[in-house]
Amino acid sequence: MEPRRRGRPRHPDILTPAEWRVLDALREGGTNAEIAARLGLSPDTVKTHISHMLAKLGLRNRRALAAWRPEREHRGAGGWLGLLVRPAVGLAAAGGIVAVAVVFAIVISGSRDDAAPTDTTPTASPAPDTALTVSPAPALNLDGCSGVAVTNPEANAELVADCEALLALRDTIRGTRTLDWTGSKAMSDWTGVIIAGTPPRVTSLNLSDLGLDGELSGLLGNLTSLTTLDLSGNPLTGMLPSKLALLENLTTVSVAGTSFTGCAPPVLRTAATNDVTASDCGAPSSTRDLDRREPVPAGTYVRPARSRTPELVFDIPPGSGLVLVSDYREAGAPVAGNLRGTGPAGILFTNAEGTIYFSIDILMMREWGGRGKSDTFTGTGTVSGLSWAEYEEIFDRILESLWRRAE
To answer: Splitting the chain (407 residues) into consecutive groups of 10 residues, what average pLDDT does each group show?
Structure first.
């Protein structure tokens, strides 16, 4: 799997002119729909610009984006990751022993969501001389779809978003084969890609008999204007991502000759023309029913909505070895004497040995701060037997699978 490239901003300024306009409107207040009405854009375009700015600037939410000023220095590692690393340094100096499981306890203590049930958090024996290694969260290649792949990108934000999704999907779906999807070539000339409509969107993927032997990514669910999906004749494997449920405009679906396992999102079977034989997926399992001491089985899960956070649906790949430690809130200022967390909410994963960590921001549906492993991490002789590179791929697949059901 090729590493994702971090693109430099196309404009001399860190934000494009269109992004600055959306940011100015965001500072005036209002929902995406209200901002869109003021600027003469669609709500999806406003949402895309805001997502791009958050990714570029490393910010966590709309409030932080509205408060951001170019002369201010923002931290590279924020949210719970900052809390995670700073206590670790102090513990190392005091006792020379720091374990990822110990740091988990520091982060989570007193910071669960108000409505969260009591968690049974797994414990692990401290490992001597443990230090944390942090990998930055993967970032979208914002340059890859500007200028050549998508002409006039500022006026075609939805198509830019489709382009970004396909570029990221390419490295997962192609496996050992090649696809000519690249930022240096117009999207209209990409194999199997059809663009139509106003505003222009990707409406058809005809990828039959290309020998693609990788897996699907939930990023395919971002192509919400897709009407035709033909993957037939490719030895594709793995699960059909639950996020494909967002493809409500599908009229033609073909997966004959593929090797997908498990169930199919109902939207694939309800397409007017389809050859899907897999049974429909039922409702996702609740994270409340998971054993917090055991690896999470492969499947689709929902973190139920609570008083201040919406629900979040995600997929866990087979053999991930991940244990859901807790969902929690970052500690914030006390509210009316309530010392529980008042900041952003997250879901925290580790492995059976407690030597890695990975967290999801529930509100923003993105990675929270980063991912890390201890110096004592090894895949040899562990429950999962996975290398760090394999864990990183699993983290990416989970992030790409995040979505919310319509209320």
So the answer is: 40 70 81 82 83 80 77 36 32 33 38 38 35 38 70 90 92 91 92 96 97 95 97 96 96 97 95 96 93 92 85 94 79 41 72 91 81 89 90 93 86
Contact of 152 with 17, CB cutoff 8 Å: no
The CA-based angle 318-321-324, given to 5 degrees, is 105
CB distance 363 to 344 below 8 Å: yes
Verify cis geometry, omega within 30 degrees of 0, for the bond prior to 3.
Answer: no
Pick the closest to residue 80 from 327, 278, 386, 393 (CA basis): 327
Query: For residue 88, what are its two tokens?
Result: 């670790």
Query: What span, in angstroms and rounded, lies between the C-alpha atoms of 161 and 312?
Result: 21
Instruction: Give the number of domains in the chain.
Output: 3
Q: Are 212 and 165 in the same domain?
A: yes
Question: Can you tell me whether residue 303 is helix, strand or coil?
Answer: strand
Cα Rg of the chain (Å, integer)? 22
SS (H, E, C) 354-385: CCEEEEEECCCCEEEEEEEEECCCCCCCCCCC
Domain harbouring 167, CATH code: 3.80.10.10
Element (H, E) at 17: helix 17-28
Pair 97, 57 in one domain: no
Contact 373, 133 (CB under 8 A): yes
Contacts of 27 (CB under 8 A, 6+ apart): 66
322-329 and 345-351 strand pairing: antiparallel
Among residues 24, 42, 25, the alpha carbon closest in space to that of 33 is found at 42
Strand 322-329 relative to strand 193-196, pairing: unpaired
Q: Which helix (H) or strand (E) holds 267?
A: helix 266-269
| DSSP structural state of residue 258 | -
User: Distance (Å, rounded) from C-alpha 102 to C-alpha 186?
Assistant: 50
Per the structure, the complete domain to which residue 228 belongs is given by: 153-274
Q: Within 13 Å, how many C-alpha atoms sit on residue 315's CB side?
A: 26
First to last CA, the chain: 36
Instruction: Give me the CATH number covering residue 63.
Output: 1.10.10.10
